[in-house]
Amino acid sequence: MAHLEISDSRCRTIRLESSVAMTDTMVSGTERENLEMAIQAARIAVNKTPKRHTDRAQRLTELGILLANQYSTTDAMPDLEEVIQVKSQSIDITPKALRQAIHLSDLASLLKHRYILTGKIFDLDEAIELERSALDITLNGFDQVVILEELEDMLHLRYKRALLLVDIEGAMQASKRVDPSFKDPDQVTHVDEVIDQQSDLRNQVMVDLEELIQVSRLAVSLFPNDSAVRSDWLNALGARYYDRYCETDAMDDLEEAIRSARQALDLVLDGTTPVSLLRNLSIFLGKRNLKTKARADIEEAVQLARQALVDTTSNDSDRATNLVTRAVQLSRRHQISGNMAELDEAIEARTQAIKMIPDGDQRKVEYLPDLGALYYRKYGITRTRSFLDESIAISKKAANAMSEDDPDRAKALSNISYGLLQKYKSTNVLTDLEEAINLGREATDATPNGCLNWEIILERLGIGLYQRYLRVGTMTDLEEAIRLGRQAMTLVQKNHPNKARYLSNLAFELNSTGSLVDLDEAVQLGRQAIDITRKGHSDLPWHLCCLAMGLLQRFWKIERPGDLEEAVSLGQRAVDTATIDHEGRPFYLVVLAKALHSRYWATGRLPDLYECINLGLQAFNGTPKNHPDRAARLERLGSLKRDRFVAFGNMADIETAIQLFQEAADITDRNSPIQADYLKSLGAAHHAKYDITKNLVNLEVALQVYQDAVDICLDDRLLAATLGCLGQAYLEKYEIMEAKTDFEGAIQSFQIALDSESQDSPGRAMRLADLALCYMKGYIKVGTTTYINMAARLFQDAANATPADHPDHISMFSVLAYCYEVKYNTTKSNSDLEAAIASYSEAFWDSPGATIGQSLDVAKKLVSTLILGKNWHEAWCIVCEAIPMIRGMTPRFLENSERQALLSQHSGFASDAAAVTLSVGREPIEAIQHLEEGRKFLSLRDQLETPLGGRMTSTELYEEGESALHKLTRHLDASRKLDSLISDFRAKTRSLIFPVAPDEIDYSRATKGGPIVVINVSYRCDAFLFVGEELRVLPLPTISREGIEKRAREGNFGRRSVLEWLWENITGPILDALGFTEPPLHDRWPHVWWIPTGPLSRFPLHAAGRHTETSNETVIDRVMSSYSPSIRSVLQGYGLRHQESTSASKQVLIVAMEDTPGSKSLPFATEEAAVIREVFCKSTSFELIEPDRRKEDVLLHLRDCYIFHFAGHGYTDVKDPSQSHLRLENWKDNPLRVADLLEINLCERPPFLAYLSACGTGRIEGKEYLDESIHLITACQLAGFRHVIGTLWEVRDEICVDITKITYEGIRDGDMTDESVCRGLHNATRQLRDRWLSTPENKFLGEHDSGGRSVNYSDPKDDRLLRDIISCDEEEAELLHWVPYVHFGV
């Protein structure tokens, strides 16, 4: 602690009282000669005086006075030495009783002066003892004051010297203690000596301080209360109390310092307060504010500093000091208030102070670093680079002004290094990092055997080296960073304010080594850091994240589930603890996202995937473009997008992922070790895109990028993983091109990757599986037996190396089973089939870490394999376990398209389950329950849980205000939490929170309108016939799934040959079994609901038959037909029917799209609307509404309509049925999709009818979506319409008018009952069929057409009357135009 200046008036000079008068007269050469003659005479007199003579002491004194005067003119050290010698002799021979205090004090002053010149401490020690003796024999009050001043000054000199030595010796001791080479016994002995010496110095400091306080107290007591000198001594006493406070941290000393300074201030009577007093009191109050946070103290400190500055003239030597004091207090007040004006004023005050100080003045060097610190603080607040640059420039100026041996130079260099590290964070320029490291080394080298704050210098150098390791990948940098971190840790005491930060920094560095021992230590250090960090500290989130990262690294090393869960918890706590504007918040978000992403990969928890994408976006948006972590956050966000693409197949996700990975790679140095990781991710994204598009260009790009990553990869673990990806890409290319070089490339890549893994490496099992898969696919291509045997052996080794609770356990045994299945297909050996069944069983039953989706996938394969072996009972057991899991495949927070994508992965399993249930001899009702449970995409539960009547549009949110948005947010949050709870429970218990028993269905109520026919298509085909309460099973032995699929691939479902095949093999036997063998009498038409499954869902069962003028062997001539996706849907329709009275709407909403952007004109669409107006609205009380033909307006009117009629173009999306849509004016930007209809809820006021007079509104193109029956028709049903009329494929524009007219006439004449809708469409279909039969020349569509409704199709024939998207291979001359129309409803 620097000595505080006490007074402007007290003497601090050598007291040579007897010589002053003589010096004033001896200025000429003659006088100098006279002085020399006098000295010579005095020498002679001393020499002639016997040693014991009583006058000898007096003569020595006189000689001393003359010599002192001579030294005053020469400043020669020999003269000073002789003066001291003579005065010492004089005092030594003078009896103690006769000694005069003035002589003792004079000698003390001379010794002090020699100490100042030579630094020899024994002179200062002797001077103090002499001054003490002088004080003891002084009775006069004035002389006491003079001696006290000298004694106080000498004691303060020794105190400062001892304080400095304590710091230096302490650093020396610390540096030797941590020096690895410091081992031999002599050195250890020296360390003990240093420790003892430091202890002695510390004791000396406290002894001198105590005496200084006593001296000041005595001096204060010598003056009356109104004395100005008393005020000076009170100021000095306050300074000494403050010095002791700085040593002891005892608040009592600080309070005494403030009390003494205030008393001194009160004694100032003339209004001229000493500047030093104002300054000292300001310092004391500022220090107390740091302890107590009392706002009044800092306010007063600022005012006192201001007053001290005001009282100092512009040319006063103290003005610079006062400017600095004011800057200090303003800086502290800024830390409290956050007022930038105060920080700016502090900067300006320090700048002025530095300008005032001439070059060469040590104060300039002392003040520059603090000015640099103020600019750095301003940079920290504003993030304006110019302030950081100014801070670095000022710090460099300070360092350059310091001498090589200046003890503060190391600290200054370290500060510059740290500033450059911060600059590197914002610029990502490697030269900034290199300069920071070089200066950090220079700072360390400039520290002789250690110094105060040496741990900070070491720590900062370690940070720089670690950052360079991350950038360049040199292991020596990481090793040195860890060594420096350990060294710094040994220097900090338990209560060191930065100890937690040092612990976490070291933990972070240890995380990077990959060593389990280091990871364990990192976790331990992270826990220590959190334990010593108080709650609410701004660094706490960072410490939490450092521990979370260590736990994640250890989880992937040894896969301990507890580490993963704790990492997630710590990451969440960090995000929750950090303020929204905290500088480190993006990093905390990234850590939590990493933890959740890891848990998603380990458990398949979909809520984790969605949440980590959200967190990744937040983190990325909070990262500046030039931030060094930007590339890492781009890669992280890209990985999340890629994973969501893999889960749900949204092409926008993979395109975004590719862009993010590419940017991450582009902004990263090629020599950086992380570059290979980014390239691997980029290759994986192109590879994933290829998996969907099957465009070979994507695969070629992936291969090239993987190879680039391999070429520059330095990390063995990353290299093995990248080689695995490269091998997989080669293998997929081989499967397409069948080039031997690709197969060899795959084998080589997989083998090198396997060889790089140790026997106990967690990644070895995956490498074995990769190589095995390659051999298996080689066998499939060329049939080499050696390949399949090698594959089986490698797969078995991989499976055996994977623990049961490992997430990959299910995959390993599943692929082993598939290998045996492939082998069985060739050998037909029962042993191979049994091996496949055993491996699938192991995968399904003994994989507690599997996700629901994985378990369902294996269950489907296992059941198929058991069917091959006709092991019905075991297959049935699997079915009973697996079917209830389907409930878990549709989390509430997912978009409907994403639910659909998940369920589509298990298409056909429900049909297999129903078939197995029959084969094992169970009751048919159980088979139906499995079928219903396994095929549902959306259920009544999903509708009832839709928030606020469905997903709200932006318009609705705007209109309903903030409350609606809050409700929606709460609902989504609650659904996420519920799904998370369910996922956790399932992961721990492998069971379901919801009951696994199928829902009870009141089939008698479902069939009150007529029979329900469920046609199950599997390895066996059966029709389930519901009539009243009776359920019968009718086997359909003449059809098979393979045969139906073959016909489906041929297309043209409306051909006569297809209708006749349907009649002969399916509908004819079913109607015969139901007793409908003849046309009905008296127009009493029976009503049948058809529920086809699998590929049969695409066929027109209602139109099946032998259509001739004399035949009645047709469905249309025996019954009316309706369709339903499930029995539940029929029941839901009846439930809506009971709510009819709640709907008061009498509106018919018509959208007639005669002209659609980008599509062919439909001239009959307007006529269709006119027919409804004439036939229906004029004869009823209904109002015709024709809104603006845009999505927003149509959706708005849908909520109030009773009938919705659309005449225009439709579009069927093959890859994503939820994107199928009706084309309105703004369809290119905002189409009216299936997903939009699914997200509205009209159940409170259910509309009566949706008539979709467009092509393919009931068409399903994708095989994987057949079970879910997702198309525009079912979307309208689920939105709340009781009835929906649509089409299975393209329809003629002109025929649409006829169908519409007859149907609406039937609805009108039938009093708008439920039956009237189906009857109206049935009559329309029969009339057009009969017209076709009576006009043979028109029975082939396409030969005489003059226009049609189509989209994005150019037909060499005229297609203007077709309302569809059709391709050339779909076109068929025998397409019957009355067949496509279907009814869904009750």
User: Helical amount among residues, as a percent range?
Assistant: 55-70%
SS-based structural class? mainly alpha
How many helices? The count is: 54
Low-confidence stretches: 1-27, 168-192, 937-998, 1138-1143, 1262-1268, 1338-1362, 1364-1373
Side by side, the strands of the main sheet go 7-6-8-12-13-14
Assign an overall shape: elongated
The description of the largest β-sheet is: 6 strands, mixed
Average pLDDT, rounded to a whole number, is 80
Q: Which range does the strand content fall in?
A: under 5%
**Terminal-residue CA separation:** 93 Å
Number of strands: 14
- What value does the Rg take, in angstroms? 47 Å
Structural overview:
With 1386 residues, this protein is mainly alpha-helical. Helices cover 64% and strands 5% of the residues. The chain has 54 helices and 14 strands. The strands form three sheets. It has a six-stranded mixed beta sheet with strand order 7-6-8-12-13-14, sandwiched between helices. The protein has a five-stranded mixed beta sheet with strand order 3-2-1-4-5, with helices on both faces. A hairpin with a 3-residue loop joins strand 1 (1012-1017) and strand 2 (1021-1027). Helix 5 runs parallel beside helix 7 (141-178) and helix 19 runs antiparallel to helix 20.
